[in-house]
Amino acid sequence: SQKIEQNSEALNIQEGKTATLTCNYTNYSPAYLQWYRQDPGRGPVFLLLIRENEKEKRKERLKVTFDTTLKQSLFHITASQPADSATYLCARISGGSYIPTFGRGTSLIVHP
Amino acid sequence: EAQVTQNPRYLITVTGKKLTVTCSQNMNHEYMSWYRQDPGLGLRQIYYSMNVEVTDKGDVPEGYKVSRKEKRNFPLILESPSPNQTSLYFCASSLFRSQGGYEQYFGPGTRLTVT
Questions:
Q1: In this structure, what are the phi and psi dihedrals at residue B84, rounded to the nearest 5 degrees?
Q2: DSSP code of B27?
Q3: Residue A27: is it exposed, middle or buried by C-beta count within 10 angstroms (0-12/13-18/19+)?
Q4: Under the phi-then-psi rule, with left for phi > 0, alpha for psi from -120 to 50, and beta for the rest, what region is B42?
C-alpha cells in the first residue's frame, strides 16, 4: 500500500533560521505532493502543491522540492517566525486517484 | 467570504443514536470529502463526492453514510454511532480537475464524542 511518512518528532528552531521538514513516500511516485499547515483545533490550510515532473516550487518564504530518486519531498520555510509554529502535513495523490494519503504531520516550533 | 462550514462544532452523543454532521461550501466546488483525524493516525478520508449524486468510499467508510443532493452540501451520517467513531471530523472541498492536484479547503472541524 502507499505510505507517506513524516518525522514525528517536533522540530525546534530559532527565529530567523530556515526550517526544513521532510516527507518520504513508499512505492511508486505520486502524481502530486501537497503541503498543508494545521494549527491546533483548526482545519488544515493548503500551502503548496508540486507535481512529479517538477523539482521545485516557491511561494514567498516557502519552498518545496521533490526528489523522485530519493522518494522524498522537502518543505522549507526561510526566515522563520514564531507565527510559523504549527503542524505541517504532507499529502500524496497518485495519478487517477481521488483519495489523498496524508502523513501524520510534523510539529514546527519557532523560538523567538 | 469563501468558506467551508460544519455543524455542529462539538457533539457528545451515546452509542446507537443516529446523528448527522452538516457541511456546506460557498465556492461552487464540485469535489467534497470527509476526513477523520485521530492521534497517531493522521487524516483519513471517509467518503468523497465528485459532483451531485456522485459519491464514493475513501479509506475508512465503515459505519458512515453520505449524500450529495445539492452541490454546496455534503452531510455525514452516522446511523448507529459507536465509541470507536469518537474523533475529529473535517469536511473539505475543492475544484475538480480530472488530472487531480487539487488543493482542498477544509472546514473548522467537528469534535465528536460517542459514549
A1: -75, 0
A2: S
A3: exposed
A4: left
pLDDT of A99 higher than 90 = no
**B104 to A32: CB separation less than 8 angstroms, yes or no:** no
Q: How far apart are CA B96 and CA B69, in angstroms?
A: 17
| B103 to A103: CB separation less than 8 angstroms, yes or no | no
Nearest beta carbon to residue A46 from set B40, B99, B104 = B104
Sort out which chain A residues have CB atoms less than 8 A from B56's CB and list them. 98
Nearest to A32 among B41, B42, B101 (CB): B101
Domains and CATH numbers, chain A: 4-111 (2.60.40.10)
Within 8 A of B45 by CB-CB distance, chain A residues are 99-100
Average of per-residue pLDDT across B72-96 = 95
Q: Which residues contact B1 (CB under 8 A, 6 or more apart)?
A: none
Q: Would residue B40 be called left, alpha or beta, if left means φ above 0 and alpha means ψ between -120 and 50 degrees?
A: left
State residue B85's pLDDT score: 98
Q: Where residue B101 falls among pLDDT bands split at 50, 70, 90?
A: low
